[in-house]
Amino acid sequence: MRMGQTAPLSESSRQRETAVMWKKQSRMRQFFLHFCSNRIGMTGLICILFLIAIALFAPLISKYPEGYGDTTHMLQPPNSEYWFGTDSIGLSIFDQVVWGTRVSLYVGSVATAIAVMIGVPIGLLSGYYGGRVSTFGMGLADIFLTLPILPLMIIMAAVLGNSLGNVGLIIGLFSWPSIARVTRAETLALKENQYIEAARAVGTKEYKIIFRHILMNAIPPILVNMTMILGDAVISEAGLSFLGLGDPSSWSWGTILQNAHATGVIINAWWHSLFPSIGIIILVLSFNFLGIGLNETLHPKLRKL
Questions:
Q1: Tens-digit pLDDT profile for residues 147-173
Q2: Taking a C-beta distance cutoff of 8 angstroms, is the pair 62, 98 a contact?
Q3: Enclosing domain of residue 14
């Protein structure tokens, strides 16, 4: 009898697992269809993919700007030979902007990864356990939110050095409080659900409940917040580079602006500052548009009729 009863139970379990799998696939398909119909989100995604392609294929698009350029064509406005013009030493602004795309995306990715690694665990533990854990975690977040970020970034960049990795690290260390707050708020809402109580009732270990059940369902709002952090990181990196605290061995959009300011041509040679500024604006707006699209897709009430 026991052997005869094993097969139906096993078959029933397989059917439940199959039903859950199909349900997840259906949700993913619905999410994909709704997001594709969101013009703002798709505009942001297409622009981001385009900029990522530029960053990846930068060596094929343009040569790396180094040394002195064509000294006979210094401060040339945009023309058929130099699409974005040249700087005060004859280097192509187009080449600088192309390679600056790679730097901005790299620093933004590093900063966001660090913010996620710090903010998500703090938010999860604060929301799940509450009490002293929440007081400590959110108190630490409040302290970071009240700190004068720019002066501290300048000090840390001067102390740690101004390599690209250090710049991303510095920005990430000051970007985690927002994602911690979002994660905590989502954890507080999710831990009251019945499936969490059921998991506790059957003896599921707490770390599995936190990271498998709660975290997996909290990913959507975390993704939305990540797009905001990426945009802020690009602006922060450009600001630090403009102040001369970026990596001097690599090209950044902020470095291009800093060179234009240092040589005194930021106003007269308008192309020197215009094109890197456009790059910053496009990248930041693209991440914001992507975040808006994700948020509207994940929350049906926000979808435009």
A1: 887 788 888 877 887 788 888 898 999
A2: yes
A3: 1-36
Spacing of C-alpha 63 from chain mean position: 27
Amino acid in position 235: I
Phi, psi (degrees; rounded to nearest 5) at 92: -75, 125
Are 50 and 22 within one domain? no
Best mean pLDDT range from 158-167, 183-192, 240-249, 282-291: 282-291
For residue 202, give Cα distances in angstroms to 12, 198, 199, 209.
19, 6, 5, 11
- What number is the average pLDDT over the span 132-156? 87
Number of H helices, E strands in the chain: 13, 0
Please name which of 97, 30, 31 lies closest in space to residue 64, comparing C-alpha atoms. 97
pTM of the model: 0.82
Give the chain's domain count. 2
Q: Is the model's pLDDT at 28 over the cut of 80?
A: no
Rounded Cα–Cα distance for residues 221 and 128 (Å): 17
Tell whether 241 and 156 lie within a shared domain. Answer: yes
Q: Are residues 57 and 103 in the same domain?
A: yes
Are residues 268 and 261 in contact, defined by beta-carbon separation less than 8 angstroms? no
